[in-house]
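PROTOCOL LOG
Step 1. Enter all chains and additional molecules of the complex.
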Amino acid sequence: MITVAFLKAAIIAGTPLLFATLGEIITEKAGNLNLGVEGMMLMGAVIGFQMGYSSNSPLLALIFAALAGGIGAFIYAFLTVSLRANQVVSGLALTIFGTGFAGFVGQKLVGLKMTDEFNDFFRELKIPGLGDIPYFGEILFNHDMFVYLGFITAIILGLYLYKTGRGLNLRAVGENPAAADAASVRITRYKYIHILIGGALCGLGGAYLSLVYVPVWQENITAGRGWIAVALVIFSAWNPYRAIFGAYLFGGLDIIGFRLQGTGIAISQYVFDMVPYVVTIIILVIVSLRKDKRNAPPKSLGEPYFREER
Amino acid sequence: MKNGSAYVSMRDITKIFGTVKATDNMNLDVTKGEIHALLGENGAGKSTLMNMLSGIYIPDSGHIFIDNKENRFTSPRDAIKAGVGMIHQHFKLVEVLTALDNILLGYNVGLFVNKRIQKEQINKIMEKFQLDVDLDKYVFDMSVGEKQTLEILKTLYRGARILILDEPTAVLTPQETVKLFKIMRRMKNQDCSVIFISHKMNEVMEIADRVTVLRKGRTIDTLIKENSNPQELTELMVGRPVDLSIKRIDKLTDKVVFKVRNLRADNEEKVEVLKGINFEMYQGEILGVAGIAGSGQKELCEALAGLYPIKEGEISFKGEDLAGKNPKEFITRGISMSFIPEDRLGMGLVANMDMVDNILLKQYHKSKGFLVKRKPAAEKAKEIIQKLDVITPGVHHPIKNLSGGNIQKVLLGRELDSHPELLITAYPVRGLDINTCLKIYDILNEEKKKGVSILYIAEDLDSLLGLCDRIMVISNGEVTGIVDARKATKEQLGLMMLGNKEVDNAD
Ligand SMILES: Nc1ncnc2c1ncn2[C@@H]1O[C@H](COP(=O)(O)OP(=O)(O)OP(=O)(O)O)[C@@H](O)[C@H]1O
Ligand SMILES: [Mg+2]
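Step 2. Run joint prediction.
Step 3. Record the structure below.
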């Protein structure tokens, strides 16, 4: 029973990571490395919470959380796509900005809670039939709608990337913008749209933390999950399907320390907090040793594109 | 001005990059069903002009008419809509995608791609123009020739009526060139306009209907091929009379300085690529190496410079066996190697750096002290510019902004500057204009006179026969013979390149 509860909790803990990872995957597929994930998550978290608290409408809270992440991403897109500023610097600046912004807006929200009516929107919904399968039903099909949404988003993103014409164009933009441009893909438009969608997904990931996972406002509610998401993108080799698995795995690592405390095995949570990064480094080493062209990062990642440059 | 018969008409086109006037009021008219060649020295502005016709660059001033309608292209997308397709000097393909995906890229706007239907359509085009592309092959697995055919197919699929080919043959084998010309003729018969850029005069004479000559950013003249000849075209291109013959000077001594015995090496897949190579070189001679592309030239070059791991064999230079030593040992003994790869981009220069820093890259370890001294390197850069006629605004201009040919001159200049005793040079004239080719031959002869031994690897048989003392032919990693260049014939070399052991009529 302990394992069922643990695996279920791992999926829940992995859900904010999944949103953020998907957001960063789609951004990086457009050739942009946005290190502002943590900042955009925080912006989504605080705006979502503020909106939910004042309107008592879960839907508005979600929409505004996505918008907040999107606005953060827009600043980043303007800097890196239109002004061709350095992507790493711009992303880091966005994280710093988002952290400050959330701290500022969140000052008067600390300790506040949502109404029961609001929380009811995110109650567990058992999927008829599937939810009754022993063990699996409880682990996989007995969740709040956010968890399902994350799962569905990953599938849709995967279909989009690998099965549609636009997804093909997007992959080409990240690989070789000059080639995509010559093949009449509108580079700037593609970059903006996907960076914005990526930001919105990060915002939603943050909102899951403040609205469902915690769900009380607290300072620095993301606690470095944005960075784990950046690592997860590498772990999942820029593939949305693998991101599902990776996010749930890393979600499990996020909570395992606390779970173990109850059982008397004393391994500090700090040890487990290191694991995602260690795993990512190992994956990086393996990927670069194998020189597999298909699991490699988008080739133009981090480079600005200017048509008349050569 | 409206030109009644011209299908494409470019009028008074000017484009300035920083301080460089790449095209200065250029004009070009191309009719339907015509193959129109563009000739000009490196940096004359050929690629720039064509990039404006295909929407990559936006002209600073001037007008482009297609079918008597004025067009203002702001992106390649606009140009494609107007029926312009360009095969760039450096291919624009996405390596990690398949041929099919590269063709569909940017074209298919439907939500889900139905690959089966698309494939049928593409196959029809392939039949019509007799192209042969494996649609499921990844681009990173393709040879240069395959990539080029794919690029052509891609533009045809988009319905191009105007096809621009920017130095398509620079990287092709003679057989592939023959195939390309067939495709071009077929397009011409379909009433398309084909614009063809090449530095190889014999190709231009073979395929073009009309020729437009450009010089230093200006249009000089448009001539009908039938009424012209290579000599006249070259003179228009260069702006003064030139002697097109390749000079050869007699070999100086009979002293053997370099000896290679039973050289064997494997590639990454553990396939033997050098199968027991034997040869020697005399002081002050030019030994040519001929062979079909991929016969082991690259591995040989690198092995002789200490850059490629060898399995067994002896590389002896002045009696000392260098096999197994590290590359620096080769350099300090005066062995210098330069290799111009097929893509001509990744070739030992750092694109974002200027000439001075690129020269320093090769030499900083020679200078004493902790800090690098830029002054001497800047002097060297100026020397190279003068000696090789490099067209550049200055020594501090980033290398990548030079025209393809000029980048190559910088590379060769840097190699020569290290005063080597053995110079290994592979494809040094790839993509260079005739005049510069001749200049490079002169420089090699100059070095030969000083007693330098030169290993000259090339694909152009005319230059091999004209310049070298002896020619070594390799086929599939083996030496099929070494012949006297004064007596050898093209046919003989061709047969040996295909693997026939020494078809003797020499030495
Ligand atoms: N994107 C660019 N930025 C800066 N300068 C450029 C750029 N493109 C071309 N130039 C300059 O414009 C001039 C013309 O270059 P272009 O590439 O058109 O020559 P080309 O005739 O194609 O020569 P080649 O035979 O060597 O390819 C050169 O002096 C080059 O340095
Ligand atoms: Mg060019």
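Step 4. Note key features.
The first helix of chain B runs from residue 46 to 53.
Chain B has 16 helices and 20 strands.
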